[in-house]
Every structure is written in structure tokens, then in C-alpha cells.
């Protein structure tokens, strides 16, 4: 049987559809709840999917990954708060559209262009994954693999941290964690302190659930304040007309191109792509002055760009074994537990998996699109769920998910410890991404460095270390040095937020002006205070009038 | 500003202490055999990481002492009661783990599984700590989540809870 038929055949099992439905609901919900990221949800689900067949597990995890990409636009548009970091750029024009009574239009356009972005990126994955993997398999030996790992960690450091030094420290901390356990070459035990639990290394799932799940939860507990802001509930017209579709075409194309490119850079995710896509589309637009004031082009560009990163991230993850973003880092951990090692040999060993992955993501995208268009009104209600339900639910599922990986309570304790470490790192503005990447790729880096150093004395230097390895190492250095230089050239006051570090000065000035104009317009809708400070008032009914000032 | 700088210095000192501790333990790794010429032993890579970590921590410390802090707009401010919520959550979780570790107890001649009781207490405790005061929804939510977990994970997926 050909790999194509094998891959499709594995998807025909009814259980796959059921697992995808579970992933779809989970993905939509985590996307819609601000503060719960797709990484957190996939990390959490990884604990429960370990006992499944690889294709079943991938069906759950990949569908969460896709569906979260749709769900996270809802709070961005309705309450100006990104559901996940990937939808940061959606707030720039999505929320102003909602204030103008065009939330339904923004939600629909966002869902359509997200589907377009993901489908385009899947074509990229289907076309590029096997050639990239074949190239890597033929030309990547130990020095190149070591350089690739260093490059991946360097990119993650360059992207995820405002302070390069803190990013490097995070990466080194992750690599240190990766040294715990038995050194494969000599079977020497390192940092086990006599504990049998540590002989095989630190439990990866416990670490990621701790760093991405518990740490996020603790941070919410630390910073939560009672808010009276409620989502805009007057959604207006839903379906875009022909001229709006035509108007969004160019922005979608520009955003898509940006997303596909950014997605292929290891560790770069939808958050960066969304902002760059929005900026590029503004420059290419016939009406750049409308960006930031509720432009449908802005929504189309940012959401296409952030969604189009999915296929690129998947490509670098599956073909090279270097995570395309933090969700993919978690995915690699799960796949290793299933006995599948992402990397150049994956597609020669399991060519059917490419077909299965594309099939799962394709169906997940279409299901998410349908759910977005049909149930969007119901999704708005999710934003009203009280936080105590969410927090307690997250905690118990984190505990059970971690316990399920080893049936040992010591793993749960490890998770809690990393939760505390994670929240401390977060408060110190040290990013968790490089820690996870270091832990995941550390053993690979050490193994390939050891092999390279063993070969080096026996052959000329440039015969061992190829130009590919040198280029990768130079790129690794540049990816750390360049953002540091760019940041150093900006005044300290202008390095405040993530968006500030990505967008140029002209875009920031336009956004600031647009915000001032919107704030000054008395005819716009606003997020409604439905539970005013007076304690014993009856809740007003939900209707469109309540949104008017 | 000076106070802020002081807390930054303390944090980088912690980073320095962690990396220095890692270096100290690295030097104590017992080797079963010496590495062959040109090969690296079990201490080499950790040593590289420890030295890199110490150098970075020292540079961060120097920066923390000599330069004013940059803006902290990316992280949200800790709210009153936030630390107490986290500490109480941790304590309740630890109590839950301790209770769960009992497995089962014999009471009045019956063998009783501890997990469902511990999970229900955990959920109810957390909801109360987070400020939920409606008793009916508290009981319904606690019971339904506990039952869901016990049935799905304990009985269907056969995870030995």
C-alpha cells in the first residue's frame, strides 16, 4: 500500500473523528478564554494522550492547535484581550470594528482568513516537508545537527525575550535540566542525587505542564483583579459583502505571504507574524490611514499572517526536529513518548504520517471554520464564565494529566515545583520557551557535539564542519545579536511592550492616534458594565441597547 | 528606583547561586571511566553550561547594579491578595497530594478509595479560596467535576487514581 493510502486509511477510523471533536471543543474553549494559551492546552492534553495511538494523539493535539487559532480571535475582537498571544494583532483593528458595531463582520472575516491562512500553510507543508527532510537527511551530520540545535535555541532566545541575557540564561537553564539523568555515551549518572525518578532525566511533560500550565495559572492568581468590563454583545452584520471581500484580498495575500515566511523560521510564532503582517498590509493598502481605526483589511492581514505560520512551524518541527513554536516543542515531547522522533528520518521511516498530519489539519481547519461561523454567538457567552471555575478546573486537570504520564505522585510534585519556578521566571521576565527548548534539545546537542569533537582530530576542520554548519552558527549568533542591537538603539522608554518591539515607529504613532480618535468618539459602542458596583441590583437583560453609551 | 534595582540584584544573585551550585555539583560527578583522547566525558557539557551560566549571571548582576531598570509594562502588577491566593493554592494542592498518597483506607469495615473524597475537597477548597460563595453551585460543580474525572480517567482510561 502506498504511503498516501496508508495515511488516509489511518484517518478513516471513527475514533479519529471523535478525538478530533474533543480537540475541537478544547481548542475553541482555550482560545476563547484569555490567559489559557494553546501551548498550555496542548501541554495539558499531552498528559492524557500518551496512552493513545500516535495518530489518535496527533488528532487531539493538532486539532487543539488549529481550533485555538480560531477561538482566540473572539476575545481579541470583543474585549480587546488576545485569547492567545497569536491574536495580539487582531486587537488592533478587530476591537475598533466591534466598537463601531461591526463585531460580527470582524469575527466572520477573521474565521474565513484564518482558514485561508492555515490551508495555504498546509500546502506549504505538503510541498516542502519531504524535500527539506531529504536535504537534511543527506547533508546534516553531527556538526550540522549541533549547529541546527544551537540555531533553534538562539532564535527562540532572540524572539521570546526583551533581554537577550535573560533569554540566554533561560536557554542555559533548560540545557542544564537536559543534563539530568544518565549520560548515554558512558552511562554515568548526573545530578540524580540517588533518586531513581531522575535516572531517566526530568519528566518532560511535568516540566512543560508546570511551566506553561501551572505557572500561567499562578500568574493569573497573582494579578487577577475584579473587572466590570463585559464583551460587546451587539455584533451587527455577520457576512461580508462583495466589496469587503475584494477589499480584504490584497491584505490577505500580504498577510499570508508574511505568515508562511515567518512560520518557517524555527521558534517564530503567530504573534510576531500577525504584527508584521498587519504592518506590511498597511504599507501595501490603498487606505493605510484606516488601519487601527477598524479596518477590515487590518483584521484580514493580521489573522491570515498569524494562521499561516502553522504549516511552516509544522514543517520545521517534523522535517528538522526543531520546534517551529512553543506548541510544537510540546508536540515533539509527546511524539518522542509515542516512539516517533521528529526529524529528517521521520518521513523516510513513516511517510504515511505526512498524509495523516495534513489530513488531520485539513479536517480540523474545515470543522473549526464551520464551528466559527455557526456557533460564534454562543462562543461570546464563554467569555462570561467566572474565573474560579476556570482556575480550579485547570489545576485539577494539570494534576491528573501529569499523574497520568507516570502514575507517580512524584511527577505531580515535579510539576508543582516547575510551576513555582515558572511563575518566578515570569515575574523576572525570563521567558519559558528557551527553557523548554533547552531541555528538549540539550541531549541532542550534547550527543552531536561529542561526535563532532571525536571526529575533528582525525580529519581537516573544514571537511568535518561544512559550510552549512558554519552558516547556521553564524545565523545563530546574528539572531541573538541583531535584536539586541536593534533594541539598544531604541530609547529605553520605547521598549515597553511586545508590540512596540515588533512594529515600527510610524505604525505605533498611527495606532496611538487611532486610539485617541476612537476614545473621543461618543457614538461608538463600548464594553458594558453589566455588574455595576451597587451590590443588589438586578442584572439588566442582554440587548443591543445596553452597549450604547 | 533604588528599591527596584535592589530586587533586580537579588534576583540575579539567585541566578548566580543556582549556576554556581550547578558548577559545584558538576565537579562532583563520578566518572565510571576516563574519556578517550578527543572524546568528551560526562562532566564536559555540564561544565560548559555552568561556566556560560555564571558568566551571563555575572553580566546581569553588573547591569542590575549599574544601570536603571527598564519599564516593566509587559508584566502585570501583583494585586492585593494575589500572593495569598497562590500560597493557599499550593498548600491545598500539597494537602491533596498527601491525602491521595494514602490510596485507600479501611473505615467501618469498608475499603474506601481516598481519591474521590480528596478531589472533591480540593475543588471545594479552591473554589472557596477563589471567592466562590454560592453553596449550591459549589456542591454541584465540585461533585460533577470529581465524578467526571473519576469515571473518565479512573474507570474508562484505567489510570490508577
- In the residues of chain B, how many domains can be counted? 2
Across the major sheet of chain A, the strand order is: 1-2
Helix content of chain B: 55-70%
User: Span between N and C termini of chain A?
Assistant: 65 Å
Report helical residue fraction of chain A: over 70%
Query: Mean pLDDT of chain B, as a whole number?
Result: 86
Question: What's the Cα radius of gyration of chain B?
Answer: 25 Å
Number of strands of chain B: 2
Largest interface: A-B, 66 and 68 residues
Q: Structural class from helices and strands of chain A? A: mainly alpha
Short description:
Chain A has 549 residues and is mostly helical. Chain A is 70% helix and 2% strand.
Write a concise keyword list for the protein shown above.
A: two-stranded antiparallel ribbon; two-stranded antiparallel ribbon; 4 strands; B: 161 residues; mainly alpha; 2 domains; 5% strand; flat
Plain-language structure description:
- The complex is a heterodimer of chains A (549) and B (161).
- Chain A contains 24 helices and four strands.
- By secondary structure, chain A is mostly helical.
- Chain A has a two-stranded antiparallel sheet. A two-stranded antiparallel sheet of chain A has the order 3-4.
- Chain A is globular, with a radius of gyration of 23 Å.
- The C terminus of chain A is likely disordered.
- By secondary structure, chain B is mainly alpha-helical.
- Chain B folds into two domains: 65 residues; 75 residues, no CATH class.
- In chain B, helix 3 packs antiparallel against helix 4.
- The longest helix of chain B has 26 residues.
- Chain B starts with a helix and ends in a 5-residue tail after the last helix.
- At the A-B interface, helix 9, strand 2, helix 10, helix 18 and helix 19 of A face helix 1, helix 2, helix 3, helix 4 and helix 5 of B.
Amino acid at each position: 500500500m502506498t504511503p498516501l493510502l496508508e495515511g488516509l486509511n489511518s484517518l478513516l477510523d471513527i475514533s479519529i473523528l471523535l478525538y478530533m471533536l474533543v480537540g475541537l471543543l478544547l481548542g475553541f474553549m482555550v482560545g476563547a478564554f484569555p490567559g489559557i494559551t494553546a501551548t498550555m492546552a496542548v501541554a495539558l492534553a499531552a498528559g492524557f494522550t500518551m496512552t493513545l495511538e500516535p495518530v489518535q494523539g496527533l488528532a487531539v493535539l493538532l486539532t487543539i492547535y488549529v481550533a485555538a487559532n480560531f477561538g482566540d480571535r473572539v476575545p481579541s475582537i470583543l474585549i480587546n484581550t488576545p485569547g492567545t498571544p497569536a491574536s495580539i494583532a487582531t486587537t488592533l483593528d478587530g476591537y475598533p470594528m466591534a466598537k463601531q458595531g461591526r463585531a460580527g463582520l470582524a469575527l466572520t472575516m477573521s474565521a474565513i482568513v484564518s482558514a485561508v491562512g492555515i490551508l495555504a500553510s498546509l500546502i506549504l507543508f505538503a510541498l516542502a516537508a519531504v524535500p527539506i527532510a531529504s536535504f537534511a537527511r543527506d547533508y546534516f551530520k553531527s556538526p550540522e545537527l549541533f549547529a541546527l540545535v544551537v540555531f533553534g535555541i538562539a532564535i527562540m532566545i532572540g524572539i521570546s525575550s526583551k533581554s537577550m541575557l535573560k533569554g540566554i540564561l533561560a536557554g542555559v537553564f533548560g540545557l542544564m535540566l537536559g543534563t539530568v539523568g544518565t549520560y548515554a555515551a558512558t552511562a554515568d549518572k548526573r545530578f540524580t542525587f540517588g533518586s531513581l525518578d531522575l535516572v531517566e532525566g526530568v519528566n518532560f511533560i511535568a516540566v512543560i505542564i508546570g511551566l506553561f500550565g501551572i505557572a500561567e495559572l499562578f500568574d493569573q492568581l497573582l494579578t487577577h483583579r475584579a473587572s466590570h468590563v463585559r464583551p460587546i454583545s451587539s455584533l451587527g452584520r455577520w457576512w461580508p459583502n462583495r466589496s469587503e471581500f475584494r477589499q480584504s484580498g490584497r491584505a490577505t495575500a500580504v498577510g499570508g505571504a508574511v505568515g508562511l515566511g515567518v512560520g518557517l523560521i524555527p521558534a517564530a510564532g503567530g504573534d510576531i507574524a500577525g504584527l508584521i503582517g498587519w504592518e506590511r498590509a498597511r504599507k501595501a493598502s490603498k487606505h493605510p490611514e484606516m488601519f487601527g481605526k477598524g479596518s477590515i483589511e487590518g483584521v484580514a492581514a493580521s489573522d491570515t499572517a498569524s494562521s499561516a505560520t502553522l504549516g511552516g512551524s509544522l514543517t520545521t518541527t517534523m522535517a528538522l526536529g526543531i520546534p517551529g513554536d512553543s506548541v510544537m516543542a510540546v508536540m515533539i515531547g509527546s511524539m518522542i513518548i509515542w516512539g516517533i522522533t521528529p526529524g529528517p528520518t521521520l518521513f523516510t521511516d513513516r511517510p504515511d504520517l505526512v498524509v495523516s498530519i495534513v489530513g488531520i489539519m485539513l479536517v480540523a481547519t474545515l470543522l473549526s471554520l464551520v464551528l466559527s461561523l455557526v456557533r460564534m454567538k454562543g462562543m461570546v457567552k464563554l467569555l462570561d464564565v467566572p474565573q474560579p471555575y476556570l482556575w480550579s478546573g485547570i489545576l485539577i486537570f494539570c494534576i491528573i494529566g501529569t499523574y497520568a504520564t507516570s502514575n507517580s505522585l512524584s511527577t505531580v510534585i515535579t510539576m508543582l515545583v516547575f510551576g513555582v519556578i515558572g511563575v518566578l521566571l515570569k515575574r523576572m521576565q525570563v521567558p519559558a520557551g528557551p527553557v523548554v527548548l533547552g531541555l528538549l534539545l540539550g541531549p541532542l546537542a550534547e550527543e552531536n557535539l561529542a561526535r563532532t569533537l571525536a571526529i575533528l582530530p582525525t580529519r581537516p576542520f573544514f571537511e568535518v564542519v561544512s559550510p552549512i554548519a558554519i552558516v547556521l552558527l553564524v545565523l545563530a549568533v546574528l539572531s541573538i545579536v541583531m535584536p539586541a542591537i536593534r533594541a539598544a538603539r531604541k530609547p529605553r522608554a520605547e521598549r515597553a511592550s511586545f508590540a512596540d518591539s515588533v512594529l515600527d515607529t510610524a505604525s505605533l504613532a498611527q495606532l496611538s492616534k487611532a486610539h485617541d480618535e476612537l476614545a473621543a468618539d461618543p457614538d461608538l459602542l463600548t464594553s458594558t458594565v453589566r455588574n455595576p458596583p451597587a451590590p443588589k441590583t438586578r442584572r439588566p437583560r442582554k440587548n443591543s441597547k445596553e452597549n450604547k453609551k | 528606583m533604588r528599591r527596584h534595582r535592589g530586587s533586580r540584584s537579588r534576583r540575579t544573585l539567585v541566578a548566580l547561586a543556582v549556576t554556581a551550585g550547578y558548577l559545584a555539583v558538576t565537579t562532583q560527578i563520578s566518572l565510571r571511566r576516563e574519556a578517550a583522547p578527543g572524546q568528551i566525558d560526562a562532566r564536559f557539557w555540564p561544565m560548559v553550561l555552568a561556566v556560560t551560566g555564571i558568566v551571563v549571571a555575572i553580566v546581569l548582576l553588573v547591569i542590575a547594579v549599574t544601570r536603571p531598570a527598564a519599564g516593566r509594562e509587559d508584566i502585570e502588577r501583583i494585586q492585593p491578595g494575589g500572593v495569598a491566593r497562590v500560597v493557599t493554592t499550593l498548600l491545598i494542592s500539597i494537602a491533596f497530594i498527601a491525602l491521595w498518597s494514602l490510596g485507600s483506607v479501611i473505615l467501618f469495615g469498608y475499603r474506601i478509595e481516598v481519591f474521590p473524597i480528596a478531589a472533591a475537597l480540593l475543588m471545594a477548597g479552591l473554589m472557596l479560596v477563589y471567592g466562590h460563595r454560592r453553596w449550591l453551585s459549589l456542591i454541584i460543580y465540585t461533585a460533577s467535576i470529581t465524578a467526571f474525572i473519576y469515571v473518565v480517567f479512573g474507570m474508562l482510561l484505567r489510570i490508577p487514581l
